[in-house]
Amino acid sequence: MNTVVYPGSFDPITNGHLDIIKRSAATFDEVIVVVLVNPHKKGLFEASERVELIKKALEPIGDVNVKVECFNGLLVDFMKEKNAKIIIKGLRAVSDFEYEFQMSLMNNKLDPTVETVFMMTRAEYSFLSSSSVKQVAIFGGSIIGLVPDEIIEDVMEKVNKKIKER
Ligand code: PNS
Predict the structure, then answer these.
(1) Residue 94 confidence (pLDDT)
(2) Which of 65, 101, 110, 130 could bond 76 through an S-S bridge, CB–CB 3.0 to 4.6 Å?
C-alpha cells in the first residue's frame, strides 16, 4: 500500500492545504495528515485543536483514505512508525523552494529511504498561508474562501479570544 504523509503546522488548515490533501488522496492509497510541532512557530491553536479542525474540514469530503494525527518529534521518526516512505509537501512559489529544499535534504539525510514529493499549489491558493489568514482575522477582515467553511467560526472565535486576553 502506498501511504504518504502530509506534514505541517496547520495553524489553522487553509483551503490550500485542503486542496493538497484532496489531490494526494486521489493519487495515493492512503494519506496521513500529521500536525507537527514547529519549535520556531508560536501557534494560535494547540496541536490537538488543529487536528480537530482538520478532521472537521474533511467531514464533507468523507475520504476514507485520509487519517489525521499529531506528533511531537522528528518527521522521519513518525514516518518509520507508520512504515511510510513518501512525504508530500505543497509548493506555492519560488520563495517556498529554499526552505522546502533544506527540509527535504535534512529528512533525506536523517533517513535516506524517505523521499519528498512536491505538489504545486493551485494558482488560486498560491497567495494563501496560515499566517496571512491569522493576520486577516486579527484585523477584522473576512476569511471566507481562505479556510474551509466548517472552521471559519472556530478560527474567528479563537482570534477574538486571543485579542481579549491581550
Ligand atoms: O507548515 P510548516 O510550518 O511549514 O511545517 C513545517 C514542519 C512542521 C513540517 C517541519 O517543521 C517539521 O518537519 N517539523 C518536525 C521536526 C523535524 O523533523 N525536523 C527536521 C526537518 S528540518
Answers:
(1) 85
(2) 110
Amino acid making up residue 56:
K
Nearest to 165 by CA among 138, 142, 133, 144: 138
Residue 63: pLDDT band with limits 50, 70, 90: low
Looking at residue 20, its pLDDT comes to 97
How many whole angstroms from 136 Cα to the centroid of ligand 1? 24
Strands (E), the chain: 3-8, 30-36, 66-71, 86-91, 115-120
Angstrom distances, CA of residue 78 to CA of 65, 107, 114: 18, 11, 11
pTM equals: 0.96
Residue of the CA atom closest to atom 1 of ligand 1:
8
Lookup: cell for 158: 479563537
47 lines ligand 1 (CB under 6 A): no
Mean pLDDT of the region 63-76? 93
Q: Could you tell me the domains of the chain?
A: 3-165 (3.40.50.620)
